[in-house]
Write a sequence for this structure.
């Protein structure tokens, strides 16, 4: 049950769920549950999701966009993290779903998600995945390349159906983010480039297909972005392109999507924007474009993923060995690492650390938090100042809800962590910790 709480001024509230508190025992508490007790009960590494925070963010994005643009549909970007519990929450909160694989479609199906609100993305959809999508009733297919136009036409024709589709356009807009997170520039594997004329050719080819109904245009310029101007530029380019395609080919723009990718606070120095700013910027750009073209306002589809799930998740680890190299660095090892969070290794992602059993203790020692995997690049947080750490201490990495579990692996044959949801002082196990037997199930022994 929830414990009595005390003021939270010592906590970095910018990077924690709204429910985070220091409880009467002096421990970090999330969703009314003591994180040290969670670590004891479920073991670590442990990923903890605050259900109320997920719901709060779903409602916030819906409300912000509906105020600015009533015909707006937020769709949750599943690749940030999807399990049956998340799919059900997203459905209950009235959002759509962005899926990128047959696996994500399958999870949504089993969770009872209304797949008419789903959009199927991806740069190399397989025939079997497209067949599954049409059979399952996925509402829209986002076409990414010329091969896919032909493939979708074949699959839809074989099933005697007409697939509703959007084209993914590469607008050539530069977003200020990590190179691996840029997806809207010319040199990217995603979408039809505007600059080369291939996007225009894709419109003409798609409109010629009898079993595809082209209803809209989509773009995605990147992720972990902290400025609104690139989104306005993207919408302007899409609307101008839609006007050209209307004049040349009779294309009627019914839907427009500038993607998602809004940045969140991973550290106290990050500057995440209020959702209202994203809504106002995008809605204004779409209205301006529609007025210039003299067309009805299209449906606006936006795709927050990280923004919804990232701040709702906190990763817990237990401290083990410490290695001090005088005058060089002190390494503190925990029982997880790059197997459950590879983002620091491949993106240089930065996190902050909270010691759950002494969250307000003064930091006196600069250390680097590393994992237990056999790689020198297996680190979680470099050069962070913390109170003295001892074996058995529990540390938390806030803002770990997005892209950690989905990108996790069994490297070194280490089982992937358990996942719990917390709410109103109760903890619910949604995925148990893997075992060696789990890891061997797919092998022929």
């Amino acid at each position: 049950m929830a414990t009595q709480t005390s003021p939270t001024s010592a906590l970095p509230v910018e990077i924690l769920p709204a429910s985070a508190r220091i409880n009467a025992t002096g421990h970090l508490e999330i969703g009314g549950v003591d994180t040290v007790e969670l670590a004891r009960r479920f073991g670590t590494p442990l990923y903890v999701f605050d259900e109320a925070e997920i719901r709060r963010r779903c409602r916030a994005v819906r409300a912000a966009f509906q105020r600015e643009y009533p015909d707006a549909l937020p769709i949750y970007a599943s690749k940030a993290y999807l399990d049956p519990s998340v799919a059900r929450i997203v459905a209950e909160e009235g959002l759509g779903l962005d899926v990128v694989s047959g696996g994500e479609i399958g999870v949504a199906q089993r969770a009872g998600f209304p797949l008419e609100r789903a959009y199927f993305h991806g740069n190399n959809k397989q025939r079997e995945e497209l067949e599954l999508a049409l059979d399952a009733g996925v509402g829209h297919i986002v076409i990414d390349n010329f091969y896919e136009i032909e493939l979708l036409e074949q699959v839809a024709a074989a099933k005697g159906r007409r697939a509703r589709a959007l084209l993914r356009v590469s607008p050539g807009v530069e977003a200020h983010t990590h190179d691996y997170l840029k997806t809207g520039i010319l040199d990217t594997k995603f979408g039809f480039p505007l600059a080369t004329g291939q996007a225009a050719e894709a419109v003409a080819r798609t409109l010629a297909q009898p079993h595809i109904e082209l209803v809209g245009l989509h773009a995605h310029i990147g992720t972990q972005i902290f400025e609104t101007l690139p989104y306005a530029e993207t919408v302007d380019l899409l609307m101008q392109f839609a006007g050209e395609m209307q004049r040349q080919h009779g294309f009627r723009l019914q839907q427009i999507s500038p993607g998602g990718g809004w940045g969140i606070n991973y550290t106290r120095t990050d500057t995440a924007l209020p959702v209202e700013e994203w809504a106002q910027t995008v809605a204004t750009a779409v209205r301006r474009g529609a007025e210039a073209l003299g067309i009805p306002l299209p449906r606006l589809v936006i795709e927050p993923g990280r923004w919804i799930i990232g701040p709702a998740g906190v990763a817990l680890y237990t401290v083990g060995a410490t290695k001090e190299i005088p005058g060089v660095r002190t390494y503190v090892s925990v029982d997880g690492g790059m197997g459950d969070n590879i983002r620091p290794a491949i993106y240089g992602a930065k996190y902050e650390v909270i010691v759950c059993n002494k969250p307000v203790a003064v930091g006196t020692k600069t250390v680097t938090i590393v994992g237990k995997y056999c790689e020198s690049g297996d680190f979680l947080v470099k050069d962070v100042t913390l109170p003295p750490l001892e074996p058995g201490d529990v540390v938390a990495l806030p803002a770990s809800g997005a892209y950690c579990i989905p990108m996790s692996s069994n490297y070194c044959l280490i089982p992937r962590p358990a996942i719990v949801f917390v709410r109103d002082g109760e903890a619910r196990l949604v995925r148990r910790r893997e075992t060696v037997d789990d890891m061997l199930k797919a092998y022929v022994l």
Remarks:
- The chain has a mean pLDDT of 94.
